[in-house]
Amino acid sequence: MRAARDLAALAGVLAVSAVLFAHSLHAATSYDEGVYLASLDALRHGQHLGSDVFASQPPGFYVLLRVLAAPAGRSVEGIRVAFLIVALVGVAAAYLVGRRFAGLPGGLAASALVVAAPPFAAQAPRVAADAPSIALALCALAVAAWGLERGRIVAPAAAGALAAAAILVKLLALPVLVPLAVLAWRRRIGLRSAVALAGGAVVVAAALAIAYAGVLGDLWRDAVTFHRHARSVETQSAGSRIVDYFSLRTPTTWVFAVGAVAAVVFRRQLVLWTFVAAAVVFLLLQVPLLDHHFVLLAAALGLAAGASLVSGPGRLVAAGLAVALVGAAAGWIQDYRQIGRSSAPEPAEVRAAAAEVKRLTGPDELVASDLPIVPFLADRRLPGDLVDTSAVRFASGSLTSNDVRTAPVRVYVVGREFERFLRPNDRLKLVRRLGSITILRR
């Protein structure tokens, strides 16, 4: 009977999550999605990560990207479905963490709040590294919550491996190490289990290091040094961004506040609140801090507040669960509306530009574009170093205008950063203007 109730509760949360996540499956791609799809295409056609293709994330993400995208071919929606499934696995892991710490009500509250907290639902189906890295981090916590005990080896090793995988998909998952360490300390797991926990992480890291042994320096430069240099770019302060995240118009803000009060009053679930503290510190150090990075805080707060709300005595459990579910439902409705408002299809000018690029170039010809989705839709490749031509790359010195001008291409698609230095002249002839997009040819 208990197992049936668990399955019914988890199935209900997953069903709502799937509907919410799928609401943006057919929306226009974001710039970052274009970057990763262009990277995927370059890798599929023989370019190599690090030496050829700029890697804005650790190599684990590109391994995961190729695995998830394999069944979908070139279908953007198909690839998004694979990412959506990974996000649902993360929701199930959140349920298991809450279930272990606070019973069935904790599982329901934690998973519902993770989904409701922005921007988890909006980012879940996106072809990007944030949601998968946090989903894997949640899986690591779930395995640790249920299997981290003295003398055990398999569960600690699996938790360590999943945590390493999460971090090697995106460094955003680094804060998960804090609750894992605190949980191991509180349960006094012993040397054998601690070695297994660390060993699982080492095995995953070593496997990727061996696979990319020849380009580790390049990958470090792209995924770490680049982001360190990007800190010099002036943006809104991380502290003010975090304060803005807790908008009074966001239902989960109020639920998280009540959850924090419950944690102090009941003195329970403090392990999960260390995840929140680590997440906040990490985001304070993240420059530039962008909207999609808050997937980390959504997951940490959802777990901690959800479990804390249902940790009181007697009837307070039902009251806490009611607060969590009412707040989550309000958050789901708000997310659904906001996702719907931003779910316009790919702009006609983007598709027209892709058709024009396909007409102008041969199947194996490289194209330079600051809108990477255009070559992807045209079934054309970008030079690997130009898959990401964001303002941050130019501002940090990771990419220069001369790199773009001397690229081995004949056709340029200009719509963002290239506008500053690529214009029709004696060397570059105007082919066509399509709204805000200009196509030039040598």
Beta strands, count: 4
User: How many separate domains make up the residues?
Assistant: 2
Pattern of helices and strands: HHHHHHHHHHHHHHHHEHHHEEE
Assembly of the depicted chains: single chain
The averaged pLDDT comes out at: 94
- Cα distance, first to last residue? 71 Å
Described by the principal axes of the CA atoms, the overall outline is globular
Number of discrete helical segments? 19
What would you call the structural class? mainly alpha
What profile does the largest beta sheet have? 4 strands, mixed
Strand order of the largest sheet: 1-2-4-3
Rg estimate, integer Å: 23 Å
List low-pLDDT spans.
none
Give the helix proportion (percent range). 55-70%
Strand-residue fraction? under 5%
Quick rundown:
The chain is 64% helix and 4% strand. The protein is mostly helical and 442 residues long.
How would you describe this structure to a colleague?
- With 442 residues, this protein is mostly helical.
- It has helices spanning 2-22, 31-44, 59-69, 76-116, 120-123, 130-147, 154-169, 177-186, 190-211, 216-229, 238-245, 251-266, 270-285, 295-309, 316-341, 348-360, 373-377, 391-396, 401-405, and strands at 368-369, 411-414, 429-434, 437-441.
- The N and C termini lie far apart (71 Å).
- The model has no long low-confidence stretch (mean pLDDT 94).
